[in-house]
Amino acid sequence: MTPTTKRHTGRLAAALLLLSSAAPTAAGELSWSAEISGEVRAFPNRPAFPRQQGDALVPSVSVEPEVVTEWNDRRDRFTFVPFARLDAGDDARSHVDVREANWLHLEDNWDTVVGIAKVYWGVTESRHLVNIINQTDQVEDVDEEDKLGQPMVNGNVTTDWGTFGLFILPGFRERTFADVEARLGGPLPIDDSHATYESAAEARHVDFAARWRKTIGDWDVGLSQFIGTSREPRLIPTVRAGETVLVPHYEQIDQTGLDVQLTAGATLWKFEAITRGGQGDRFAAAVGGLEHTLYGVFESNADIGLLAEYLFDGRDNDRAPPTSADDDFFLATRLTLNDAQDTALLAGVIVDRDTQTTLFSIEAERRLGDSWKMEMEARLFLNVASEDPISAVRNDDVITLRLTRYF
User: Fold this and answer.
1) What pairs with residue 268 in β-bridges?
2) Cβ count near 358 (within 10 Å)
3) Of 38, 62, 36, 47, nearest to 401 (Cα)?
4) Alpha-carbon span 9 to 17, nearest angstrom
């Protein structure tokens, strides 16, 4: 376990102890579930860098239980969701996190959440610009969909003018990174044990966020504001003990976000945009497009979704954390069989308009009986330009097979 993981685990364990002392043990309704997954990641290409391990197959196992207790006519709920993974090829990927450990209280037109939680904002498929509350658990997958639990105090009020939410976020979570000797690790070590911060409070800085959302006819609209420590670090080359390493640096930012979805029959029109200050000059970024569904194709139960989005990002890659999604097109298709096994497949491609760097992905899943599920994921990096930010993983195409048992 890395020093950063140990530090985070200690903080989260303390928060869990504090929260669990407030949870009832006798009067509430207690339920639990769990999922245990075994997976194998296959790397068909040879490593690009001498430090990287050449193992073509890397197994791992993960466990994620969930314990929920409810009381007060289900107006109060305490949820505990820990997560742990043991990986044979990446020491950094062997880690422990508390995804959720929170108390939820519900009233007729307001609710509160206190503790460690996950929050999702956004509507687009290819990139989630406005989803800024939780830190990315990047060792889990390169698609940035997996998130670390975030300590918070959150209050939401529902009115005729929409739902208003306020977030107080104490305790910053640093991003996780693959080990330099592992695949998807890049050419230089990332020294996350010596991360630096713009704020003198460092990881103790208290961040704030607010969000308004409302459904207006066929429109779903969200407007958000975040002020605090950026979840995206800049990686600064630094010489330590005669070796060049990359040190994460976290700036203070303010970010305003907008997400809009229009439901027009079988077509969903989606749009997300942000403007961010604090990482060089203020910049804007946006993702927009549509998802059109063909229902009951070929007189079957199957549905086919056709997705298309455009990605723009106006940041200066020298002064802000670099991104490859600055001028790209995303095209994908989603197949849902609507069968008893919940068989589904999503295949998509992102192409950079300037360099033709191409990211291809496939996600497929199917239930096996009532308690098992098989999944396959593929991430392929094609025609990667040397100047592209993802050139560090250009040889790290990865195919993942996962078998999960549900309890």
Assistant:
1) 263, 291
2) 15
3) 38
4) 12
* DSSP 8-class letter at 17: H
User: Chain centroid to CA 384: how far?
Assistant: 23
Q: Cα separation of 401 and 363, whole Å?
A: 10
Given phi > 0 = left and psi -120 to 50 = alpha, else beta, which region is 125?
Answer: alpha
Q: How far apart are the C-alpha atoms of 102 and 16, rounded to whole Å?
A: 8
> pLDDT class for 21, splitting at 50, 70, 90?
very low
In the chain, % helix, strand, coil (3-state, to 5) comes to: 10, 55, 40
CA distance 125 to 138: 18
* pLDDT on residue 27: 54
User: ∠217-221-223 over CA atoms, to 5°?
Assistant: 155
Residue 19 has pLDDT above 70, yes or no: no
Domain boundaries, the chain: 3-406
pLDDT at 229 over 60: yes
Q: Which CATH superfamily is domain 3-406 in?
A: Porin (2.40.160.10)
pLDDT(305) > 80: yes
Does the pLDDT of residue 54 top 90, yes or no? no
Percent of the chain residues topping a pLDDT of 90: 83
pLDDT at 48: 87
- φ, ψ of residue 215 to 5 degrees: the values are -100, 120
Tell me the two tokens of residue 15: 């928060």
Q: Give the gyration radius of the chain's Cα atoms.
A: 22
Q: Copy the structure tokens of residue 199.
A: 């704020």
